[in-house]
Structures are given as structure tokens and as C-alpha cells.
Inverse folding.
């Protein structure tokens, strides 16, 4: 009996200790006080070992950054309600390759483009030691009416994974290349100018950023680690020549929104993680006097913020945080609202991710989609959405390797599972866009 009593006491002590550790861990995680940085840095270190060392050495065929296991038994179109789906063609790119595909609602490929990274730059001036082609993919593409295609290269197994931008013709012949650290997204203005998301590596201390961070105590990291990966926007001509570039960190520090940088998670050198850019239209500016046509709507993942950048003054002129977390793809809508893919902000039924439409001035949420218990929506990275002419929303659910079209009543009327696979896994879907074939003159 004595031994049993001793075992019970030891068991109780272990359980109490585990519960105490859990409570302390939750508190440390929430407040980010010591020793949060130690464990956060360890997790980042493990991530680095896999993504930036083992990917290069082992070169796995089913790299989880590029391929995912999905429940669907087959690829292609698995759902189609022709009466309610928006007519048109869908352009998409995948982690499977540096390629893009234009498909019908039935999933038939009507055109494709491809151009391996190594054929653009045999000895790239902007990448010290590039990974192999099979670890490089097109993150974002855009087709022009004549069939020319703009594409951004990104990579698994490198840091930063930003690999440049190209323009090719309808037959996949190279027109021009932009050998800079372009990543994630770009926007094309009506006059043909291009605004591309770009990285710069800054080694020198940014004194104003240090002071901003220090003011916030345990809410923010007191120390800024260097080098810092500073995102920016590069303005290019239609021929791919750089006109100017603006640093996002500097644009915040020069604005009334500098304090928002206090929330940047410097356990990663990727301080703000700019992941989308869009040119403010005349229509949207008329609806909101706070904005001017030609300014840029941007999304910043690491500080869960959408903002507007003025390239001329090199300042952030508006910014908002909401209920979304680590969002992607900030869009302006014709009705004056904005929409984002909220990767981690959903707490109800469905999945951790959602698409949320909101009033940019009041912040009031106007519409959301988070999937269902049977088909939850969850993508920890990437993903995007597009409001279609009929009011439906096309959603790129990257980590489930699918594209879905949903009505405002949240019914799925079209669903495509990436038909491209390797080793029993599907290639992640990076970007999708529904296009009116009438504007694609090269198909005539």
C-alpha cells in the first residue's frame, strides 16, 4: 500500500507539473516574455534545417512545401454546377513546375506555358547558389490579351525564396527577364507599368525601428535581429526596366503608422512579409477619399495588416489590422469593400482559414467563407480569392491543392483538384484566376 500511495503522489506531482508547464507555456506564448525567444528560435532552426539544408541535400520528390496529401481520389474538375458557375477559363500555377495552365470549366487544358529557371539564367546574377529546377515554381502569373505571360519564380530550399520575374510570349519564348529578388505578387497598371513585390537584405541597424520596437515591452520583440529581410515594391516599365523601388519598412517608419512595426516577429528575419500588391483604381478612390488612384493596396503577413502605400511620397498613408491573422491577397472590390484570404483567423465551424470581406473604413465584416465541417478551409500559407462578375468567389485553397468557386450563399458550384501529382501527392496550387475568354485575342 505504501508503494501505491507513493506512486499516486508521484503521479499527482507529474500531472501537476505538466499542468503548470502548460499554463506557463500558454502565458509565455501569449506575452512573448522569456523564454519564448529560445523555443521560437529553436523551432525556426528546425524549419531552417529542413527547408534550407535537407531540401538541397536529399531533394525529396514529395517536398511538403510543394506537394500535399489530399483526400480526393482523382484530380481535375470534381464539381460543376454549370447553371451557377461563372463562365470562363481558369488560369492557375502550381508547386509542380514553373508552368501555368489555362483550363475550361470542365478541366480541359486549352493553353499552357512553361519556362525553367535555369534556361532564363544559367548563372543568375541575383542568386548565389540556386536550387534545382524541380524545387522552383511559378508563384504568380498573369496572361495578357495577346498571350504574353508574366510570371514570378519562387523556390523551396532557399532563403529568401525570391527568384525573379520574366515575361514570355504565347509560345513560351522569353521576352525579358528581371533578375532581382521578386516574390509572391505583382500588379499591372492600366498604362502597362508593373509593381512587383521585392526583397532587399539590410545589414545595418535601422535605429528608428529599434526605438519603435523597444517602446512596446513584452508585446513586441525588444531586439531587432540583423540582417533584416526588407520587403519593398519595385516599379518597372512594361519592358521590365526598373524605374524605382520603395522599402516597406522605411515607408512605415516615415508615416503615422510606424508603431505597427512593433508587432513584427523578428524570430524570423522576414520582418513584415509583403505578399500582395494591387493598384488602387479610380472607381475605388472615388468611393474612399482617403485613397488616391495609383496608390498601392498591400498585404503584410507578419503584422497581420493591410495597408496603402504611396510610391511618390514613399509613405504608408493608411493601414488596418482586423480579426484576420497572417492573411494573403488583399483585394479592392467594386462595391468599395476589401477582401483577404485569412489564413489563421477563423475560430468557428469549418477550418482555421476563411475568406473575409470587410469595410475598409469601419472594419465591419460583410461576408465570410470558412468551408464546412465536411470540407473545411485551411491553408497555412499562400492562397487567394477573386470576386467574379456574377458575385461568386473563386478561392485558391493552396494546401488542399484545390480551387473552388462558391456562391454568396456558400455553395460550392465548381471545384478543381490539381491534376498534377508526384509520389501520390498533389502539387500545391499557388494562384488561380477566372478569365473571360473574349479578352484573350490569341485564342481566336
Amino acid at each position: 500500500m505504501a508503494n501505491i500511495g507513493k506512486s499516486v503522489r508521484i503521479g499527482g506531482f507529474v500531472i501537476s507539473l505538466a499542468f503548470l508547464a502548460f499554463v506557463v507555456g500558454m502565458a509565455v506564448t501569449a506575452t512573448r516574455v522569456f523564454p519564448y525567444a529560445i523555443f521560437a528560435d529553436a523551432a525556426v532552426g528546425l524549419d531552417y534545417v529542413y527547408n534550407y539544408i535537407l531540401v538541397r541535400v536529399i531533394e525529396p520528390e514529395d517536398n511538403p512545401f510543394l506537394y500535399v496529401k489530399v483526400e480526393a481520389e482523382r484530380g481535375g474538375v470534381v464539381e460543376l454546377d454549370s447553371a451557377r458557375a461563372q463562365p470562363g477559363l481558369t488560369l492557375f500555377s502550381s508547386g509542380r513546375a514553373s508552368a501555368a495552365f489555362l483550363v475550361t470549366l470542365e478541366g480541359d487544358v486549352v493553353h499552357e506555358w512553361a519556362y525553367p529557371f535555369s534556361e532564363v539564367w544559367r548563372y543568375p546574377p541575383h542568386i548565389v547558389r540556386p536550387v534545382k529546377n524541380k524545387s522552383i515554381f511559378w508563384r504568380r502569373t498573369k496572361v495578357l490579351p495577346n498571350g504574353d505571360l508574366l510570371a514570378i519564380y519562387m523556390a523551396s530550399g532557399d532563403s529568401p525564396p525570391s527568384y525573379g520575374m520574366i515575361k514570355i510570349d504565347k509560345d513560351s519564348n522569353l521576352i525579358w527577364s528581371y533578375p532581382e529578388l521578386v516574390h509572391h505578387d505583382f500588379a499591372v497598371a492600366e498604362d502597362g507599368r508593373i509593381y512587383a513585390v521585392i526583397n532587399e537584405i539590410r545589414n545595418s541597424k535601422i535605429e528608428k525601428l529599434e526605438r519603435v520596437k523597444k517602446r512596446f515591452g513584452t508585446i513586441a520583440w525588444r531586439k531587432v535581429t540583423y540582417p533584416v529581410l526588407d520587403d519593398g515594391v519595385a516599379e518597372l516599365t512594361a519592358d521590365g526596366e526598373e524605374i524605382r523601388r520603395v522599402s516597406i519598412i522605411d515607408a512605415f517608419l516615415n508615416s503615422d503608422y510606424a508603431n505597427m512595426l512593433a508587432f513584427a516577429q523578428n524570430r524570423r528575419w522576414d520582418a513584415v512579409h509583403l505578399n500582395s500588391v494591387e493598384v488602387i483604381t479610380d472607381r475605388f478612390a472615388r468611393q474612399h477619399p482617403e485613397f488616391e488612384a495609383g496608390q498601392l493596396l498591400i498585404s503584410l503577413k507578419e503584422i497581420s495588416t493591410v495597408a496603402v502605400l504611396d510610391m511618390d511620397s514613399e509613405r504608408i498613408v493608411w493601414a488596418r489590422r482586423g480579426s484576420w491573422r497572417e492573411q494573403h491577397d488583399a483585394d479592392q472590390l467594386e462595391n468599395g469593400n476589401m477582401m483577404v484570404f485569412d489564413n489563421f483567423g477563423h475560430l468557428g465551424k469549418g477550418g482555421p482559414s476563411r475568406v473575409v470581406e470587410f469595410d475598409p473604413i469601419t472594419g465591419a465584416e460583410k461576408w465570410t467563407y470558412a468551408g464546412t465541417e465536411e470540407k473545411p478551409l485551411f491553408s497555412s500559407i499562400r492562397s487567394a480569392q477573386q470576386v467574379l462578375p456574377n458575385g461568386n468567389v473563386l478561392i485558391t485553397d493552396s494546401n488542399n491543392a484545390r480551387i473552388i468557386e462558391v456562391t454568396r450563399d456558400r455553395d460550392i458550384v465548381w471545384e478543381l483538384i490539381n491534376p498534377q501529382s508526384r509520389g501520390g501527392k498533389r502539387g500545391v496550387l499557388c494562384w488561380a484566376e477566372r478569365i473571360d475568354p473574349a479578352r484573350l485575342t490569341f485564342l481566336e
